[in-house]
């Protein structure tokens, strides 16, 4: 999975095309991501107790991972990622293919 929790992504298809948001969670099994403030839907919650009012809450709906791209804060654009391996620490870091900034 190229996208991690906490990343900023841009939506590249659908009605929210072009919008950006922070990733709240990634579902690897279902190939979906949850983006803060995007792809919202209104959920009506029923009153649990008598005398309590039902509420309408707005929640983000998961989007398919293929509909989002990582957003480069340097280019201010959705970008492809290149992986760079650090030989000393054996860690992989992600780089923007356009400007080589680490994301
Ligand atoms: Zn970039």
UniProtKB/TrEMBL annotation:
One Gene Ontology molecular-function label: structural constituent of ribosome
One matching Pfam family: ribosomal_L24
GO biological process: translation
Gene this protein is translated from: rplX
Protein name in UniProt: Large ribosomal subunit protein uL24
Record note on quaternary structure: Part of the 50S ribosomal subunit.
Domain named KOW: residues: 2-29
Record's function text: One of two assembly initiator proteins, it binds directly to the 5'-end of the 23S rRNA, where it nucleates assembly of the 50S subunit.
Organism domain of life: Bacteria
Gene Ontology, cellular component aspect: ribonucleoprotein complex; ribosome
Family to which the UniProt record says this protein belongs: Belongs to the universal ribosomal protein uL24 family.
Coiled-coil region: none
HAMAP family hit by this protein: Ribosomal_uL24_B (MF_01326_B)
Alphabetic keyword roster: Ribonucleoprotein, Ribosomal protein, RNA-binding, rRNA-binding
């Amino acid at each position: 999975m190229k996208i991690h929790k906490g990343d900023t992504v841009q939506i590249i298809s659908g009605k929210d095309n072009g919008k950006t948001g922070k990733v709240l969670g990634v579902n690897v099994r279902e190939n979906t991501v949850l983006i803060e403030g995007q792809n919202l839907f209104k959920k009506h919650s029923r009153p649990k107790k008598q005398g309590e009012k039902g509420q309408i809450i707005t929640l983000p709906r998961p989007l398919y991972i293929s509909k989002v791209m990582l957003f480069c804060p340097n280019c201010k654009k959705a970008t492809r990622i290149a992986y760079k391996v650090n030989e000393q620490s054996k860690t992989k870091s992600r780089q923007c293919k356009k400007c080589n900034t680490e994301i």
